[in-house]
Amino acid sequence: MLNVKGTTIVVALLLLARMHGAQAHHSYAMFDGSKTLTVSGTVAKLEWTNPHVFVWIYVPSTKDPGKYDLYAFENGSPNAITQVGWTRDSLQAGDKITVEYSPLRDGRNGGHLTVAKLADGRTLGSVGGLAAAPSFKRPSPAPAEQKP
Fold first, then answer.
1. Structural domains present in the chain
2. pTM for the model
């Protein structure tokens, strides 16, 4: 009898812990899914961390010519984006990149990455967020890797 009771308590605690983790995950309400914007710039860094990978890029400033603005783009978790072709080496500081994204509602620079287009012609999609279904696909190969 004690064994069944103890097992029940352990299972209940595990379920509660799992529910807490699910509730801790944020919604995507901070992004404006009705808009898709595009910026081009230079990769500052790829932040390969849980719970979400971030791509930081320097974009030429539209308000201050000759200067740059730092943009942050959220993507899915490292595990999730690995499933669609990303690696921790997909982007390097200094790479030229064009990003399509759902902007932040508060107007700060950045948003949820939808598509990253690299200078060599490859594209990398996103996981999670507002555009999860259409962009959850394998990346396109660089033009030199495509077969005729």
1. 37-143 (2.40.50)
2. 0.71
